[in-house]
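We examine the record.
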Amino acid sequence: MNNYKDIKNLQPVSVREIKDFDVIAAGQVKVFERLVEKVNKLFDNSFFNSLDLEGVRRWERIFTIQPLGTIEMRRNAIIAYRRGRNKLSGTIIKNMSLSYENGEVEVWFDKEKQTLMIKFTSLQGIPKGFEKLQEILEELKPCRMPIEYLFSYLLIKDIHNVMTLDTLESTTLDKFAF
């Protein structure tokens, strides 16, 4: 119900004939539109991946997360924090890493080094929001367990006789190993 005609058609004929009906119906339309807007906002804020700014702020307060970055990065921080509230495991760390990087991640424990290894495999360079991910993982992991992050970069063999000059020129420098 979002316009005057809907309101008018739902009323009995005797009400429609009232002299001030148009004014009353216009007021009802505004009330219903505000109600629909509030219900939609409530629905959107019921899911972490569709939180608006108000919802992000509320969950940051609840989880005591420091607000950093864009609203999308802040949503991802909330999702990662929520995923990591259980016992720390490779699966949880992988899920948290995926929520930041939107790509593939390998997670394993190197027994020789006694180190948790996280390798970002589907993109070159450091993923967006990495600092926040690193901060959350440092907070959740046992204090004695170091984490080593592995990134991939473009090497000479990846570009020589493989990439065109146009492709090479459009690739940002953070993707290359020096």
